[in-house]
């Protein structure tokens, strides 16, 4: 009976029984061979297997289905059985069992189902993790105190929970509802407290407002009382002053008339002085008694007036004749009209001065003087008539200028003013206004007042705009000055460029102020750019220094990568420090940055590859030494099993010991295994040792996913079925051994014949090479 038949107490089918017979059993039957089944037998066997598979699936007999995955005689049965497997652990075990076999379709089916189950399990785990995370967030939130983000966070957590609540168990949903109720109660309590606080604040505010109004009323009443008291006192003071002024007014008026009379006498105007003297007499009527000093001054005035009249009567006649002669000489004189008019006016003023206060008849002289004045003034009349026309034209032009400015002020869009147009209009109009001169004084005065009013209004608007723009430019200057303290020169440059653009967008400013402000702004801007240049120079020097150090580090890495043996491993201890040193350098020149980083990474990769190769060489040398020493020990133990002479045994043992002593590094447990083997603790049954070594090779080939030679395939299948039976329904692997462990076991196996040992060891070594080539 085969292994499966013994395990499950079933009689194997003819085909299964034939497949389960090992080659050794066939050779033991004295050359007898199994008959080859014909086509009909194979069809019956296949149909029987299909029925057995369906029956196992219908009854839920998982072990039977798993047996057919491995040992089914037809591809259809094996693949159908593979489709029926759902247990993840069993899938993984079957994948290991069929790996390296001839039926790739079964392997693909099993791996696809395993991957699908893994993906479903991963999604389920993620969903459960999200459910737990959402519930945990709500639990933590229900225990928090209320803050500004409490309500919004609660909405977010509740939305997150609603998205996964269908996948939560009822108990968890109940707890979450309790946490939600607690959180909502926290929000409601906060709202109640806020409403109560708002009501208290409103009551306090109303009370404070009422108290404030009462204080204001008291202050206002007190101020009104003080104002009324001051008004009464002021009225009394003003009445007293007016009474005193009324009493002193006649005296002051008489004193003023005396001074005017004296001034007239000093100017030689006796007629004016006499008229003022008569006014003094009128004031004396009804006036209170004069002080002695005023009475004395009136007497002195009368005396001076009489003396001046006597002097004028004696000296004026010759002077009048002289003035008449001078006026007659001006008739037809070759003088400019303005100069001639001034001279005529001067002679007329002298004539009027001589005529003041003279009582004798001078009608004839006055008529002669006036006739001469008219004849002399005739050229001036013509000139001034022409000037009058010019003044009228200037008045008309000024009217047009005034109308234009008035229309500009009335019709201009002051919400979006064109200040350049306003400035240009004011400048050009002022220049043209000054050119329109002279004009008649009275009409020109009215025009000038209107012009000044309009220009003042426009200038006030312009001055307000100037003030705003100047303030804005001063603000830009302050911001530019503040940028000097910035540590980030690049941001400072960008900011100063933005300020320059804003400067250009600012409206007009008076020329002198604009020149001054621009000088300050330009000074700060230049300082920022100079600082940027200095920082850039420093930064560039730092980058170049970093580049130099980076090149040195790269060269050190390249030298380390070129080392071998112990020197390489010793130098590799400093790689971490080199990484930190390179990372600490920071930035490099832009043109060299990528190349430097790539070169450093290449250097690190080269070092790691060299170190990995060196470790691999060391490890492989250790395993080679183990194989060599194991062969020496095997040769010694084989000689012991054959009972060779003592001298030969001593020589072989000494050779094995010498080989073991020469090796410095062994794989783990390798030296102990060799010592135990050398001491003879292993079996002396050569056939059993060979079978054990052959099974180690089969296990190694399964692990390395390598095919087994034809002569050992039946043994491999028997081993796989045995493993399957051992792991059936337990969800664990029967063999977690790796190739290193198998190699150590190989070194500890007892003596084996040379002819069988070397091919088996070569199979084991090929498995190791295959495993190393597939390793990442």
Instruction: Give me the count of strands.
Output: 0
Question: Averaged pLDDT, please?
Answer: 80
Order of helices and strands: HHHHHHHHHHHHHHHHHHHHHHHHHHH
Question: Which residues form runs of ≥5 with pLDDT under 50?
Answer: 1-36, 731-735
Global outline: elongated
Helix and strand content put the structural class at: mainly alpha
- What is the CA–CA distance across the termini? 44 Å
- Report the radius of gyration as a whole number of Å: 64 Å
Fraction in helix = over 70%
How much of the sequence is in beta strands? under 5%
Number of helices: 27
Strand count, sense and closure of the main sheet?
Answer: none
Structure description:
Helices cover 81% and strands 0% of the residues. It is mainly α. Helix 8 runs antiparallel to helix 9 (150-164). The longest helix has 97 residues, at 170-266. It is elongated.
Task: Give the gist of this structure.
The chain is mainly alpha-helical and 776 residues long.
What attributes does this structure have?
776 residues; mainly alpha; 27 helices; 0% strand
Present the secondary structure layout.
Elements: H1 3-8, H2 14-20, H3 23-27, H4 39-59, H5 62-71, H6 75-84, H7 88-98, H8 104-142, H9 150-164, H10 170-266, H11 270-284, H12 292-329, H13 337-355, H14 363-411, H15 419-435, H16 441-482, H17 489-505, H18 511-561, H19 565-572, H20 575-585, H21 590-641, H22 646-662, H23 670-679, H24 686-703, H25 713-727, H26 739-748, H27 754-774
Helix pairs in contact: 4-5, 4-6, 5-6, 5-25, 6-8, 7-8, 7-25, 8-9, 8-10, 9-10, 10-11, 10-12, 11-12, 12-13, 12-14, 13-14, 14-15, 14-16, 15-16, 16-17, 16-18, 17-18, 18-20, 18-21, 19-21, 21-22, 21-23, 21-26, 23-26, 24-26, 24-27, 26-27
